[in-house]
Model the fold of this input.
Amino acid sequence: MEAVLLDWAMSHLAGVPAPSPEETLERLINEMLVLRAAPPLPEPGPDEVEAQIEALETTWGVTEEQVAATLGEVGLNRKSLERSIARLLRVQRAQAILESQGTPIQKWLAQERARARVVIYREQLRVRFRFPTPVITPTP
Done:
């Protein structure tokens, strides 16, 4: 559920439509497959995570306070964002390793998804998420 809420908050800050819960689930499955295929990777350091968050804030045209407020609207905090960004950085590294070995990621993912046994409890996806009405707009 945290991933869905984070996707909503980040999409809201970026000014783009949020992915559906099903799309978030599909992304998480793909990320897990990529992480499992790559060699063990070290966790990104706090400075690297912070630099990525600052880059996103700059790209989105928002302040740290706006990010905190948006996260708070859905019951999340900065630590949630930091965990998500650290995972994103690990997935990007893992994908880069696979690509450097000549793995065509999209084709490989399709093959892995076909081979993997993924059980989705559809009733869990039917949870209704109530997102706040947007009150924060990016600064010009």
In short: The radius of gyration is 16 Å. Helices lie at 2-14, 21-37, 46-60, 64-73, 78-100, 105-115, 122-125. The longest helix spans residues 78-100.
